[in-house]
Amino acid sequence: MEPAEKGSDGKGKPGRASDGGAEGQRVVLGVALPVLLLGFVSLFTDISSEMIIPVLPNFVIAGIGGSIVDLGLILGVTDAIANVIKGLSGWLSEHLHGRKKLIIAGYAVSNVVAKPLIGFQTSEVAVTLFRALDRIGKGIRTSPRDALIGYYGGHEHSGKAFGIHRSMDNLGAVFGPLLAALLLALAFTSQWVIILSVIPGIIAVVFIFFVKDIKQASLPRPGAGPDTAPERVSRQFVKTVAVLASIEFASLNAGFLIARTNEFFDSVNPGASLLIGALLFAVFNVVNSIVSIKAGKLSDTVGRKKVLTAGLVLLLAATVVLAIPWPSDPASSAFSAIMIASDFVLFGVYMGMVDPTSRAMVSDLSERKKGKAYGLYYFIIGIVSIPEAILFAVLYDNFGHVAAFSFWSLILVACIAIFTLGVKETLPALARRPARSVGKGRE
User: Fold this and answer.
1) What angle, 0 to 180 degrees and rounded to 10, lies between the N-to-C axes of helices 273-302 and 333-364?
2) What residues have CB less than 8 Å from 274, skipping those under 6 apart?
């Protein structure tokens, strides 16, 4: 017999959470209500963001005359800015003794100002500047938001909390490219798809006002939490984050996956690549959304490291598939198209396994200073984002996709080895508990 959800009334119905920072909060779908509200914020934000992603490579390369290196600079520099700002916002959220103001500011800058204005730009520099402003908004909000999720999830259910949040986030990432595909089918241009992203962005900001903030003063005193979650950022935490950053270096930005897809389908069916890319990106996010919640819960029981390792192996397989020079002649183009489309599924499973699990791993290693912990995590990742995107783009532009993806496969093999040998398990308290006896059997 399954035990009732923690915080339920004993019959599995919504009740009040009594775990970690979620104490006194209503439980919905097994998590504290603020986690669900933040999930809706991310859902509508990702509808806005993911409307843009499948059309951005086309907008940069075909719309304003940029190159694959320009795309790499835009993706790499702006993502790096986002992560560096996440580091600063994580530290700042600790000193402000609150998270909500930073979260509101970050989402408003991105959703209401920066993203829709990208569509009005006519040069690579201007697109980079507004994309950077969007990423600054993302950087401002992410660390304090993840800190809230970590507190409301508690030590025993942080994987589930992050899994549900990421699942809702990725559900928005499904609707976003589908909405973009619909607009493209209705003859809207890439420019107008970007501009119209402001509508779901505004809806996302409204949801934030219903989230209850957590003040630093209300958190458990030092020593009140489990021994496995020290108050200060530990040496093990820094080492773990450094290894996770090396994995980030080997990971591929989805923009390059879309660029490769557009390149292939342009050779098979010119004019249809943009719509096909948007639909395949929706498939990627469907898989990502489904896997996220399952992987987060799985990591609570079997451990973070096993789930992360499996996800990285799938990323390696996906990268190898992209390195193959798939032919575009009529006799074999159908098989090639299926293989490239299947890569979006592989990428979706990889992202769904790695993203929530790595965030839960960071939460495992921090008790009270979660904002600072996530800040350091994102800051280090931000430092490696620029060389990663630029190096890959230069390889792609000068030597073609075969050389670029082949070289990246080798880098990924090295990073997987570093991770498996250099990172210790951070299995949370729930996973370490022995199963309780129930009658003559076991749960």
Assistant:
1) 40
2) 54, 55, 58, 184, 190, 262
Q: What is the end-to-end Cα distance of the chain in Å, rounded?
A: 7
Tokens representing residue 62 in the block: 């075909």
Domains and CATH numbers, the chain: 29-216+229-433 (1.20.1250.20)
Q: What is the pTM for the complete model shown?
A: 0.71
Reading the block at residue 357, the tokens are 């699990």
E strand or H helix at 31: strand 31-32
Nearest alpha-carbon partner for 416 in 317, 338, 348, 322: 317
Q: How many C-beta neighbours within 10 Å does residue 183 have?
A: 18
Q: What are phi and psi of 271, to 5 degrees?
A: 100, -20
The pLDDT tens digits of the residues spanning 68-118 come to 888 888 887 777 777 777 667 666 666 666 678 888 998 999 999 999 999
pLDDT digits (tens, 9 = 90+) for 218-263: 444 434 444 444 445 567 777 777 787 777 777 777 888 888 888 8
Asked whether the CA dihedral 92, 97, 98, 99 is positive or negative, the reply is positive
